[in-house]
């Protein structure tokens, strides 16, 4: 069965012996309209469509459902390498489903509420939100929170897809413990987002019993903020032998601070980051870091949002696992560091 040019719904209707309206109902993806067509007719129409190579137009289908096919991905900072990974995964999943992703950066709660009060988006993916972005979205807007605090119970159009960032931070600290480090530095984010509160909680639990020196750093300050915070930490007379950074860009800044002070990584200082951005493997030495699977997060977020819009989303998706990636920036603690923790009786 061959048609000239791209097959249309009219071609399918003629070949299947049904009306064009029936073809539209079969491909409407709407339970109420599908119920008006018998199972045998639906099967026949779909078989003919497959033979002809017919693909229903996504735009027309969305209009029939009162949807636009547009999903909104809101991230804190579009310049953050991790968010580029999230966008990559989200776009891939959306394209496969005939949808499109529009990304915004740094929008506050008022801007988000206005954007989603117009009906131009079918749903929202809100990634690593801070307090300034929460609280004003209508309950009728489907929202999936990515790398965020669990959504409140009782809101059917809200879901959360978490990353196990606390577990990743714990793995980083355990690694340094196993290498014999007893005095840890922590370049800790001052951001209010749940993801950074989770990292802090994971760090504190894993570092119990160790000496910890912390310096706050603004993640949005990028490389220079990491360098300044790193310099403050490493300028101390009791500087740590290992440092955990709340993201890889901050870790890169710490590399700069160490070089300025004549410290070698990992001979004088072990360093661990979080995110596993592309640049982590390009540093010298390559950075040991916790991989946060941004592409998987974006892809799974789109799949979950699409299911939520369709009314069949799971109640509580499992958090996505993180993993420690071992590279060249960590090594066993120097003997002097280990002895200093044992006290005079062991010296």
From TrEMBL:
Location of the HTH lacI-type domain: 7-65
The answer to whether keyword Cell membrane applies is no
The yes or no answer to whether the keyword Disulfide bond is present is: no
Name the domain of life. Answer: Bacteria
Under InterPro entries, the record lists: HTH_LacI, LacI/GalR-like_sensor, Lambda_DNA-bd_dom_sf, Peripla_BP_I
Q: Which PROSITE patterns match?
A: HTH_LACI_2 (PS50932)
The record ties this protein, via CDD domains, to:
HTH_LacI (cd01392), PBP1_LacI_sugar_binding-like (cd06267)
Recorded protein name is LacI family DNA-binding transcriptional regulator
Please tell me the species this chain comes from: Streptacidiphilus alkalitolerans
């Amino acid at each position: 069965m061959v048609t000239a040019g791209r097959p249309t719904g009219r071609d399918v209707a003629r070949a299947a012996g049904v009306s064009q309206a029936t073809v539209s109902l079969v491909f409407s993806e709407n339970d109420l309209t599908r119920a008006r067509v018998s199972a045998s007719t639906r099967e026949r129409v779909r078989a003919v469509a497959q033979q002809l190579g017919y693909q229903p137009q996504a735009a027309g289908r969305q209009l029939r459902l009162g949807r636009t096919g547009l999903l909104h991905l809101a991230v804190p900072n579009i310049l953050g390498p991790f968010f580029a990974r999230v966008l990559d995964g989200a776009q891939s999943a959306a394209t496969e489903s005939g949808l499109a992703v529009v990304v915004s950066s740094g929008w506050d709660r008022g801007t988000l509420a206005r954007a989603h009060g117009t009906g131009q988006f079918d749903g929202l993916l809100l990634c690593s939100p801070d307090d300034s972005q929460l609280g004003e979205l209508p309950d009728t807007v489907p929202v999936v929170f990515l790398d965020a605090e669990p959504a409140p119970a009782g809101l059917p159009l809200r879901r959360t897809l978490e990353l196990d960032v606390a577990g990743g931070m714990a793995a980083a600290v355990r690694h340094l413990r196993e290498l014999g480090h007893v005095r840890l530095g922590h370049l800790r984010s001052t951001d209010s987002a749940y993801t950074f509160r989770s990292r802090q909680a994971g760090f504190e639990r894993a570092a119990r019993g160790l000496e910890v020196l912390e310096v706050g750093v603004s993640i949005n300050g990028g490389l220079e903020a990491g360098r300044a915070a790193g310099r403050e930490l490493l300028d101390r007379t009791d500087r740590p032998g290992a440092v955990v950074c709340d993201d890889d860009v901050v870790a890169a800044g710490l590399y700069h601070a160490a070089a300025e002070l004549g410290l070698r990584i990992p001979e004088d200082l072990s360093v661990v980051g979080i995110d596993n951005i592309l640049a982590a493997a390009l540093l010298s030495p390559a950075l040991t870091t916790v991989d946060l699977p941004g592409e998987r997060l974006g892809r799974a977020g789109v799949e979950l949002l699409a299911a939520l819009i369709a009314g069949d989303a799971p109640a509580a998706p499992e958090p996505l696992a993180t993993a420690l990636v071992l590279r060249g920036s960590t090594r066993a603690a120097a003997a002097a560091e280990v002895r200093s923790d044992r006290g005079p009786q062991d010296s």
